């Protein structure tokens, strides 16, 4: 009952031919949910429209079918939740709640730069879940750009150190699927 996906998508509806930079075998391995059983991390990195949220939702729905608890939040919502809890004096309680689902999906990291202190709050969340529950993050920024996203290279390094320890980093290249049809019909170059 946690999830809150923005839309319904399945792996079956994903056209691998349209995204040749993805290894279908690697996605099929993720569909087994073994990485969730182990508490590992998955990162989907790539430009807008390349299917990151589609894959995140599809994997989240598969995890639910396999009886894992799943929560889906955008990075912006998550940071707002943590900042509010910090101001209220309820940070510890909020961190406990966010550590509960076996899979936490954090969508769209990097679209907005973090406010001061947000990186530190995010670090506390990642530490709380470390080696207990899986995190799936989607981002339009490469890992090398996360120092800029977090606004604090030292905290970004500490966050990445934990996230990347047991992880699959899947970098998607190529064009937006959303613009594909337009390109085909000659409306775009
Ligand atoms: P991103 O999160 O990377 O910006 P989305 O996952 O939201 O992109 O994809 C944009 C839209 O295009 C969604 O409706 C998604 O289902 C669809 N889409 C993207 N890539 C594919 C694909 N390879 N096959 C089928 N649909 C796709
Ligand atoms: Mg997206």
How confident overall, as mean pLDDT?
A: 94
Give the beta-strand count: 5
Q: Percent range for helical residues?
A: 40-55%
The overall number of domains is 1
Element string (H = helix, E = strand): HHEHEHHEHEHHEH
* Strand content bin: 5-15%
- For the record, what is the CATH homologous superfamily label? P-loop containing nucleotide triphosphate hydrolases
Q: Give the low-confidence spans.
A: none
Oligomeric composition of the shown chains: single chain
Annotation field: number of helices: 9
CATH top level is Alpha Beta
How would you portray this structure in words?
It is a single chain. By secondary structure, the protein is α/β, with parallel strands linked by helices. The protein has a single domain, classed as P-loop containing nucleotide triphosphate hydrolases (Rossmann fold, 3-Layer(aba) Sandwich). The chain is built from nine helices and five strands, in the order ααβαβααβαβααβα. A five-stranded parallel β-sheet has the order 2-3-4-1-5. Helix 4 runs antiparallel to helix 5 and helix 6 packs parallel to helix 8. The longest helix has 14 residues. It starts with 23 loop residues before the first helix and ends in a 5-residue tail after the last helix. The mean pLDDT is 94. Bound molecules: adenosine-5'-diphosphate (ADP) and magnesium ion. The site of adenosine-5'-diphosphate (ADP) has 16 residues, from helix 3.
């Amino acid at each position: 009952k946690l999830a809150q996906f923005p839309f319904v998508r399945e792996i079956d509806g994903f056209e691998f031919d349209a995204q040749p930079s993805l290894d279908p075998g690697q996605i099929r391995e993720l569909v087994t949910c073994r990485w969730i059983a182990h508490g590992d991390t998955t990162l989907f990195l790539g430009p807008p429209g390349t299917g990151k949220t589609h894959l995140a939702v599809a994997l989240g729905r598969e995890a639910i079918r396999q009886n894992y608890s799943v929560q889906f939040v955008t990075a912006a919502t998550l940071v707002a939740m943590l900042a509010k809890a910090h101001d209220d004096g309820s940070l510890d309680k909020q961190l406990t709640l966010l550590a509960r689902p076996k899979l936490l999906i954090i969508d769209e990291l990097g679209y907005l730069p973090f406010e001061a202190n947000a990186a530190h709050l995010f670090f506390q969340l990642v530490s709380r879940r470390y080696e207990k529950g899986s995190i799936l993050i989607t981002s339009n920024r490469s890992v090398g750009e996360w120092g800029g996203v977090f606004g604090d290279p030292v905290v970004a390094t500490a966050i990445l150190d934990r996230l990347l320890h047991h992880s699959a980093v899947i970098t998607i290249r190529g064009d937006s699927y959303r613009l594909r049809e337009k390109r085909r019909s000659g409306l775009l170059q």
